[in-house]
Design a protein that fits this description.
The structure is a single chain. The strands form 2 sheets. The protein has a 4-stranded mixed beta sheet with strand order 2-1-5-6, covered by helices on one side. It has a two-stranded antiparallel sheet with strand order 3-4. Strand 5 and strand 6 form a beta hairpin. The longest helix has 25 residues. The relative contact order is 0.14. It is about 50% helix and about 10% strand. The chain is globular. It has 2 domains: about 70 residues, Glutaredoxin; about 110 residues, Up-down Bundle (Glutathione S-transferase Yfyf (Class Pi), Chain A, domain 2), CATH 1.20.1050. With about 210 residues, it is α+β, with helices and mostly antiparallel strands. The structure holds glutathione (GSH). Glutathione binds next to helix 3 and helix 5.
């Protein structure tokens, strides 16, 4: 009998694929993992551009061959399979969708510019100034989260949702945990609570070294 096809995740250590790994593992779904990006020297897996015209990870290929890109789409798709990961009451669900879009649209998307300023600007000093501006912008976005999320103890309240899993991953990126600890104390406390979950702890260790 042919082996049952599994979900295939194209990712890279320390990238948005970490949150998809965490969601797959929380859902108890078996998957195979392909390291699809090398940063130094920069090299993409041969399949990556065919699967995602943007050439980015994460990419998830479902057992029937359906391709998903966009971390938040994957997280929400998997969250539907884990009880409690999407809040059920109306107000919390509205907040859930709001912030589940805010984080990738504003924070994660900045890294397409910040990691590769040369794709957008030719001049080296303009690239460096652009990176600094983007770091400032990232800080502003985190301060918006700090001011708006409940963090009691999780982002939206008593229950850990997929938003917490997403925040735990993005909090590892610039401006970094030191800045967050100094400037977003409520949020960092909440993220640490999420990271205490054994599955999140394991995936964090694997991707970010603890
Ligand atoms: N909107 C995408 C962003 C993905 C993204 O920025 N991925 C980065 C890795 S952390 C990437 O693949 N960068 C390589 C490149 O752009 O060439 C998502 O949410 O999945």
């Amino acid at each position: 009998m042919p082996a049952r096809r599994k979900i295939k995740l194209y990712g890279a250590p320390g990238c948005g694929s970490a949150v998809v790994e965490a969601m797959l593992e929380l859902a108890g779904i078996e998957y195979s993992y392909v390291k699809a990006l090398n940063w130094r020297p920069y090299k993409r897996h041969k399949d990556l551009l065919k699967l995602n015209p943007l050439g980015q990870v994460p990419v998830m290929v479902l057992p029937d061959g359906t391709v998903m890109t966009e971390s938040a789409a994957m997280v929400m798709y998997l969250a539907e399979r884990i009880p409690g990961m999407i809040p059920t009451d109306d107000a919390s669900r509205a907040a859930f969708y709001r912030w589940m879009h805010f984080v990738p649209a504003n924070i994660y998307s900045v890294f397409a510019f910040r990691d590769f300023p040369e794709r957008w600007l030719d001049d080296a000093s303009a690239q460096s100034a652009f990176r600094d501006k983007l770091t400032e912008r990232l800080r502003e976005y985190w301060l918006i989260l700090e001011a708006n999320l409940a963090c009691k103890p999780y982002a939206l309240g008593k229950q850990m949702t997929a938003l917490d899993v997403y925040l735990a991953m993005v909090s590892r990126l610039t401006p970094g945990r030191k800045w967050l600890a100094e400037n977003c104390p409520r949020l960092i406390k909440s993220v640490k609570k999420t990271e205490a979950h054994p599955v999140i702890a394991t995936v964090s260790e694997r991707n970010f070294g603890g």
